[in-house]
Design brief:
Blueprint (H helix, E strand, L loop, with lengths): L3 H5 L8 H24 L7 H17 L23 E3 L8 E3 L2 H15 L7 E7 L2 E8 L2 E7 L5 E3 L2 H4 L15 E9 L2 H13 L8 H9 L4 H5 L4 E10 L7 H10 L9 E3 L2 H14 L7 E8 L2 H7 L9 E5 L3 E14 L5 E12 L2 E7 L3 H5 L19 E7 L3 E7 L24 E2 L8 E2 L6 H11 L12 H9 L6 H4 L2 H5 L3 H5 L6 H13 L2 E3 H7 L7 H11 L2 H10 L6 H7 L6 H12 L1 H11 L3 E3 L14 E5 L7 H10 L3 E3 L8 E4 L5 H9 L2 E3 L1 H7 L4
Parallel strand pairs: 2-11, 19-20, 21-22, 21-23, 23-24
Antiparallel strand pairs: 1-6, 3-9, 3-10, 4-5, 4-7, 7-8, 10-11, 12-13, 12-15, 13-14, 15-16, 17-18
Helix pairs in contact: 2-3, 4-10, 13-14, 19-20
């Protein structure tokens, strides 16, 4: 195994413990970035189907290796942190996500699980309603007046979008006959017709167009200027509630009907079902109507109808036991493949993109789709096995388009009976189309990469876009569009150039204010924003470097471990791949595997890349990572948790240990100071005993840290 791609291909049942640890680290990073892109930036970079598959894989690995569950496990996370620029509202009752079912059998398993938990043999009634693909919103009314509106955020704290919510016609400003306090929850969405009209208006005025109605709705509601939201055709379906001063009903269906009587729009396809067979039948009916509804849905939600039973069933860490979302399979359509273009990413990856004759798939017009890599085009999988029956993909082919989760279209199949007689096999380029450098494919890698590095314009621009992204330097007024403009003008070729713009142009006013979209104030604001980012936290700098395999979560792990930039760059400069103390120290970081470690070392030791990094750091004041300080008995010690904890979750225990100054590791080694072993502890407990490491049970741990 040579990279994370091949690791991702290993079945959960075949993973070793060390492979499982590395895979959990990769999944935590990928899913955290996907959450931020979807919930925080309204720009999904991962399809719903792919996201669901990755989350299922994470859950399966944790079930097989419970001792490896991470403090930042995706299993314990909902949504993403609220974005900057909005006030924050703490939800009185958390806004949780739903568990998913992908097959009819899983619906029956959900019903059986509910009955088993309740010890209930009598018939159970469920509501079934379309799962709207929009942005979750919670509306708080006090004494009949709307007082606040908040997005889901991370489930506990959301963004204050009250002023924007007041502009949505479907949201009542006042209620008559409602409880004194009521939080109404639902989904903000945009109809297909309104979405198409909005995109037409945006394109006509040179504004941003949206990929799909969900992005458009979320981006419109999350505008800092309510006037922009008012001009957008947003709608709202109510389907749930949070804080209440008095009950709405004793059933889910009764409560929904009550919301309708208060003036909220509720979905007319919501109905009662007397068991799994009726639930699945209603799912089929909604699935058949999906294309004609006029708005996007991605499944059907089932909820136990009796609210008293809902209260008894309660919640898991992030999902209710009394509800589940039955997701639709990705939608399909056929169209003509008109061309194959190659895009070059920030790591040099050559990504083939299908240019399609536009086709509507699930209410969205699709004209581009991913083709993954050269093997996929040739009809081969990552291990050389046949896919699509070995059929290759050629320009001119009649192809099946697959909208996975209604986000990223893919080419799934080819109809050979309609292949043009003159269609030629596609020759994947071995030369970078942007800089002419050789594009090589390393052994074990599924991707061919440009070797041009910093001389490749495509890589340079993508690296700069990443550098100014939200999780990295996040320079206000300097986004992807400005980066492309400044690169084309020769003003910014590498990150360090951003911080020398003012020196190069003096005030910069004359150069900028004569450009379309710039004036004296915007130019001054940009330079001030750049100066504000000269002082940067270590983890943001590491993430901003765009090192392959290093996402936001890994950047924080590295920053916490090394503490300062000097310590980080010294260690990585001295490290030898696969051996030595510096390598061992890097590998001992929980969540860092060999592939990631090699990538970081290579970046810091590559001559041209390192010179560029040094020029950047010379312009910055890098803030040391905040390390927990404590005089607790575990400060400075390495602690490992294993087995089942009964009085807190593993994530809570690990977070508590870190807050007391301890370092939490995922495996037992000679460097481990303390093992906390709950019921079911296995090999780690034996290894700790063999090494003579102090071992405590959960009660002993709580006594030690003073939480007993």
């Amino acid at each position: 195994m040579s990279d994370t791609q091949s690791l991702a291909e290993i079945a959960v049942a075949d993973l070793t413990e060390s492979q499982a640890r590395a895979e959990l680290a990769r999944l935590a990073d990928v899913l955290a970035q996907a959450n931020t892109a979807y919930h925080g930036q309204d720009a999904p970079d991962l399809s719903d189907a792919d996201y669901d598959a990755l989350k299922q894989r994470n859950t399966a690995i944790e079930a097989r290796f419970p001792g490896l569950k991470r403090a930042d496990s995706p299993s314990d996370q909902v949504g993403a942190a609220p974005a900057q620029g909005f006030g924050k509202i703490t939800h009185k009752i958390a806004m949780l996500s739903l568990g998913n079912a992908f097959a009819d059998a899983e619906v029956a398993e959900f019903d059986a699980g509910v009955r088993k938990f309740l010890g209930h043999d009598a018939p159970l009634s469920y509501t079934a309603e379309p799962k709207i693909d929009g942005l979750s919103l919670s509306l708080r009314y006090e004494n009949g007046a709307l007082v606040s509106a908040a997005t889901r955020g991370d489930g506990a704290v959301g963004e204050d979008v009250t002023a924007n919510a007041r502009t949505v016609a479907d949201i009542p400003q006042t209620l008559t006959g409602a409880p004194d306090i009521i939080e109404v929850r639902g989904e903000v969405y945009m109809s297909h017709d309104d979405f198409a009209a909005l995109n037409d208006r945006q394109a006509a005025t040179g504004g941003k167009t949206f990929a799909n109605p969900r992005n458009a709705a979320a981006g419109s509601l999350r505008q800092l200027d309510p006037a922009i939201t008012r001009a957008r055709p947003l709608r709202f379906f109510a389907y749930a509630w949070g804080d209440l001063s008095a009950p709405l009903s004793d059933t889910q269906k009764g409560a929904i009907d009550r919301l309708a009587s208060l003036g909220f729009v509720t979905n007319p396809l919501t109905t009662l079902c007397d068991g799994p067979d009726a639930m699945i039948a209603h799912y089929r009916q909604i699935e058949e109507q999906r294309a004609t509804l006029g708005y996007d849905i991605d499944g059907v939600v089932y909820k136990v109808n009796d609210l008293d039973l809902q209260r008894r069933l309660g919640f898991r860490s992030t999902t209710p036991r009394w509800a589940i979302a039955h997701k639709f399979p990705a939608e399909l359509a056929w169209t003509t493949l008109e061309a194959i273009d190659i895009q070059v990413g920030r790591t040099g990856a050559l990504s083939p993109v299908a240019r399609l004759k536009p086709v509507t798939v699930g209410g969205v017009v699709v004209s581009n789709a991913t083709l993954h890599n050269e093997d996929y085009i040739a009809g081969r999988g990552n291990k050389g096995e046949e896919i699509r029956g070995g059929k290759d993909i050629r320009i001119g082919d009649w192809v099946q388009v697959y909208r996975a989760g209604d986000v990223i279209p893919k080419v799934a199949d080819v109809d050979l009976s309609k292949r043009p007689a003159d269609a030629e096999p596609y020759e994947f380029p071995h030369i970078c189309p942007d800089c002419g450098s050789e594009a090589i494919r390393e052994e074990g890698d599924a991707v061919r990469r440009c070797t041009g590095g910093l001389i490749c314009p495509a890589q340079a621009v993508e690296k700069l876009k990443h550098f100014v992204s939200r999780g990295a330097f996040d320079i206000e007024g300097l986004g992807a569009k400005q980066v492309e403009q400044f690169y084309t003008d020769g003003w910014v070729r590498e990150p360090a150039d951003i911080f020398t713009l003012r020196d190069r142009f003096g005030s910069g006013m004359q150069q900028l204010k004569n450009r379309e979209g710039w004036g004296d104030k915007s130019a001054a604001n940009l330079f001030d924003a750049i100066d504000e980012r000269r002082k940067i936290p270590l983890h943001r700098l590491i993430f901003g470097l765009g090192i392959r395999h290093v996402g936001e979560q890994v950047s924080k792990l590295l920053a916490t471990h090394f503490g300062t930039w000097d310590a980080f760059e010294t260690a990585l400069t001295q490290a030898e791949i696969g051996q030595g103390a510096a390598w061992d120290d890097l590998m001992n970081i929980d969540g860092v595997g060999a592939v990631l470690a090699q990538s970081v070392i290579t970046t810091l030791q590559q001559k041209a890349e390192r010179a560029s990094i040094d020029r950047l750091v010379a312009q910055l004041e890098v803030q040391a990572a905040a390390r927990p300080t404590s005089d607790s008995p575990v400060a400075g010690k390495t602690v490992v948790f294993t087995g089942s904890l009964e009085k807190m979750t593993r994530a809570e225990a690990e977070a508590r240990a870190e807050s007391l100054g301890a370092k939490v590791a995922g495996s037992v080694s000679a460097k481990t100071d303390l093992l906390v072993a709950g019921p079911g502890a296995g090999s780690k407990a034996k290894k700790a005993a063999d090494l003579g490491i102090e071992t405590l049970d959960e009660d002993g741990w709580l006594t030690l840290i003073g939480d007993a």
